């Protein structure tokens, strides 16, 4: 016995989390997680560099489907 009050409190907390969780401060969360505010410019530059490097190989193979076709229709 005595579990009723504890269970009622758990149910109350669960309902609050389920229905009243719209006030998340995303900037504070980002700071706590240590996520920088850097842009993806470095990743874009790397992707462009790789695309330029392997563009000649794509011309050699010439398949638009990446060689996945089996020749059957």
Describe this structure as you would to a colleague:
The structure is a single chain. The protein has 73 residues and is mostly helical. It has a domain at 26-61. Helix content is 63%, strand content 0%. It has three helices and no strands.
Task: Map the helices and strands.
Layout: H1 3-19, H2 26-33, H3 41-61
Model regions low in confidence, pLDDT < 50 over at least 5 residues: none
- Work out the helicity level: 55-70%
**Average pLDDT for all residues:** 77
Principal-axes shape call: elongated
Alpha-beta content class: mainly alpha
Compressed to H and E, one letter per element, the order equals HHH
Which short descriptors sum up this protein?
73 residues; mainly alpha; 3 helices; 0% strand; elongated; DUF3073 domain-containing protein; DUF3073
Précis, in short:
With 73 residues, the chain is mainly alpha-helical.
